[in-house]
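Render this sequence as a predicted structure.
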Amino acid sequence: MNPRSPKILATATAQPEMEKTVDQAIAYAEQWLEGQDERFRRKALRIFQYAQVDRRYTVTPPEQMIRNESFEARNDRYIHYAIELGEQALKEALERAQLRPDDLDMIITVSCTGFMIPSLDAYLINRLKMRQDVLRLPVTEMGCAAGVSALIYARQLLQANPGKRAAILAAEFPSCTFQAGDRSMTNIVSTAIFGDGVACAILGFDEDKPGPQLGPHGMYHFYDAIDMMGYRVNDDGFQMVLNPRVPDTISAHFPDILPGFLAGHGLKLEDIDHFVFHPGGKKIVQLVESMLHPHGKNIDVTKAVLRDYGNMSSATVLYVLHYIQQQGVAPGQRGLVLSFGPGFSAQRMLLHWT
């Protein structure tokens, strides 16, 4: 690991106040699916029941989700909470890092569940009175993979500017994309697993602060897989695209995605102490688990985040990292960050705790 690689100085998360248990989600799903074919209803409700999401947090009251709200109303809610919860998470992360807003040289904001111009970073610069020369980089349209993408971009920017500091802020509110008129199986699956949340990471070179160094990284792009996942924009807003072939596609490429990537840096799966994986959903979690268990490894923290918060798109991998950081990590241990997103692509980065 390059001794001059930047590291993560602090992490923080912020959730909406509204909490929804799986039983509450099922109750509202029953109302939403009222009048549908009974066999279809039973199948849909089982998806909620066995999604391995025990609770989630949401900015949208469930009774509003199942009504036909306009795209404008849902996007306005997205903007409001992105700013409010974004500010909360950024302030907490700065406090944990013992830094001030004007200590930041760059801010990278990440989101794909709403639309706003100016982007979120502009609002946070004004609210926190950051320096007027702070570098802004909004990362959009990369879906669940964008949290890792932001780490990759931050590492490259910081290594080109030694001594600088950066903030990454991922703000995702999938409840604001829900279309009540779409009763497709894709919308049912995504609604069963997604939750709302915001996560932040502060990065820099401060040698007196512990934290994982950002190491080698790589993106892996799947050819001819554009239709795997993403959003289709229609008159009602963002309509989820999620191909059921995603787990099989990942499985077919797994040797290149993980063992091949690690081998390129002189490592094996056994050398990794912490797997900072994005929990795309139950099937992907089970797939990755089945491939790691023979090597004596697990993704228990990933499963815990999915259970307690749901899939929060790009913010989720930072939640997993935050959980691991809070548990305490011994110096010298290694981590591997991984997420999949539209494109279709895998994003990977090595971490090394100092």
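Summary. The first strand starts at residue 7 and ends at 14. The CA atoms of residues 78 and 319 lie 19 Å apart.
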